[in-house]
Predict the structure of RNA-binding protein KhpB.
Amino acid sequence: MRSVETTGKTIEEAILMAVAKLGVQRDNLDIEIFEEPVKGLFGIIGGRNARIRATIKRSVKDEIKEFLSRVLELMGIEAKIEITEEESQIMVKLSGQNMGLVIGRRGETLDALQYITNLAVNRNKSDYKRIIIDTEEYRSKREETLRKLAKRLANKVQRTKKSIVLEPMNPYERRIIHSTLQNHPYVTTYSEGEEPYRKVVIKLK
């Protein structure tokens, strides 16, 4: 049960009735007032109680799960959704069959899914929380691959003294390349081009 309608001599009394029925704190309820209380003649005749509807607020986790479930259903994919909340971000782990379809080419589908989930869930919220979606540890594996690539190409630039332009990458992947080489003694990095074809360039200092 997520909502109840209750009555009381006052609005506060009706709210307390709803709190008792739903078993949650008042701060976790959205209150909709249908009728204000009206005192009757001599306090007896023709009076009317307050009437409200109290609804349990949806948590961010509930919103994420509901949104992703709808999107994955439209994609024809069944997946288990596990959500853990940290101070500044929310981690979402998807598991099931056909996760390759969720990842897509070089993680493009996974990135798109993460992007639209962030837009949908954080809309009209003052306390923005970054949502990170992963499956089959793709992101950690991709990060490790990119860090190895960055170091290998940096050595090549140092050896050949020629700059190297990498293939187009999304902002997340470019940041991995930049952060891996930011303290390198002989090479530096920068990005060039326009999205979605922006690339990282590795060159000698």
Notes: The chain is about 40% helix and 25% strand. The chain has three domains: 3-56, 60-136, 140-204. The two ends are 64 Å apart (CA to CA).
